[in-house]
Protein 1
Amino acid sequence: MITKQLLVNGYELHKNVFTPEEVKKASRILSSIFDKQPKFKGDRTNSPGIFEGTRQDPFNSYPELQFIITSEKLISALKTSLGNDIYLLPQMAAHKNGFPDWHRDTTRQEKEGHTFHYLSHYNVVNCGLYFQPNNLALGGGLDVIPESHVGPDPFITKSWYNKLPIIRRLYNQSLYKRLSKNGRTIFNDSSDFLIFDQRILHRATQPTERSRDKFSIFFMCSPDYQSARQYTDYFFSRPESVGLDQIQYRREFIEALEHAGLKLMI
Ligand SMILES: O=C(O)CCC(=O)C(=O)O
């Protein structure tokens, strides 16, 4: 049973899922991981742009982070939002100083011709762990357009869009202005856990000052086998995912997920 909040608004914030000690521990581990050179395929470090660094598959690649995904309170929050049957998708990443602007997580697949995310049964959520409170000066969390997970994607444009650069510029200006005006900042605390529909329009809360590092971890889940299969097959078909379907998951990781009641889609 999906909660009304997630179904109607497209997002749900669970408060106080982690203790202050767990938040400190996670931040310390993430900081030290990002201080070292990346070891795994798809990782980036010190890249200028919207993500300073990313580490794929954090709970499996770094056993010291496994306690996060198997935390009883996190699993209980997931089950409250999605029901007891939960598939964990293999797309998971830790970010350092990630500040992407407005987007939908399904725009790319739609541009590539996929429309399975509009099927009535479809339900995939993105789960966000922010290890700092969100505020308007420093950022640290998410802005969303409530209820925008239903309906068409404004980033999918018709053929007129590509005719003239001025048309593109005017369309983009007006779209970003409208999104910023209607966006709602989710003021999470560092111990909270955020679940949002993969189709909701969202962006990282944009900081006006940068006096601290932002660390976050995102992973995707679904309460529906078919949705989980469709998205996972699409994810593995992307050129940059080549080889990711061969990832060796640690036995302890698989067992811990099974114990927690999460089914890993591979
Ligand atoms: O880094 C953030 O706060 C936003 C992440 C995001 O937009 C995404 O994972 O799709």
Protein 2
Amino acid sequence: MKSYPLRRRQVIWKNLLFFIFTSAVMVAGIVTAVRGEGVSAVGWGLFAFYVIATGMSITVGYHRLFAHRTFDAHPVVEALALFFGAAAFEQSALDWSSQHREHHKHVDTDLDPYNIREGFLYAHIGWLVFWKHTIDHGNVKDLSKNPLIALQDRYYVAWAIASGFVVPTLIGAAFGYAWEAFWLAACARIVLVHHATFCINSVCHLWGKATYDIHASAKDHWFVAFLTNGEGYHNFHHRFSGDYRNGVRWYQWDPSKWLIALLSYVGLAKNLKRVSEFSILEARLAAERERVQLSFGTMGDHPLRVRAERVARQRYERLQESLREWEKAATAWRELARRGTEEQTMRLRQALAEAEERFQEHRRRWEHFVRYRAAVLAPAI
Ligand SMILES: [Zn+2]
Ligand SMILES: [Zn+2]
């Protein structure tokens, strides 16, 4: 492995002291609230607003808009994401995106800034406290051309203090709740959003489901998705990082995706990038196929192994073939249906329905094999 010139072991005092300071103020605030009269509605309201605004600025803004360019946004959206993103105290958008692109490009290697192979604590927070990373903006030239992003990077500390501490505290003070605003909407909120974001790099690279790529350390973790506006579907995200969605199933919690869709609906976002449903399905089935193949390893020299492997291969090949046919029929339908005659349209619709039905049949057969492979093979024992 190439020696790592981009990091040096060193205590980053400013980060360490900042984490201690915000956590200590949060604890002091909780103590004063418990001993005193609790928290006012203004305090809770400001806290909730700041949790959502800064959290969304990281997930929708820093991550999906800037780091991955999964959609284009109106400058007003960019400015809001940069303002409230700074308030999250997770570096400038330029530094964040540069390190995040390195993470995707070199995941699980020494070149990954939050490499999970260094352990849970390193990936969660240790990389920010005990390591000095050199950031090379060579991989974010597309972003540094944007004057707003460049401006935020240049005056990042002033922006972060103003948007993260000064503004919420002043708003609280206007209602007579300066201390509440400071400890709850500024400090406690920073701690909460920090650790929620950090869970993506730690928890989601250790625990959860490998639905789309069994080789990735990134996993889909529903609870982290709940904490991070949908970012917890990290196995999907590492497999399809160019997609503006992270939770693609209808029941998955992904408010960042919903916000981007809403912005698009009102004309503040466009060119939302999505991978095709067929590619997603193909990846899911391929992951399932690999898991089945791995399970054969546990059969050792069992006489049934050869037969099981043959059945799996045949059923999976038919499944793949029927998926390709279905995709072809769907493409033909999309491209020709509107231009063709009524009769041609009817024919394409019929062909599409039949192709889907064939696929679903092969899928049932495949799933039956996956679920009941022991029973399917039983007669041969
Ligand atoms: Zn990751
Ligand atoms: Zn990412």
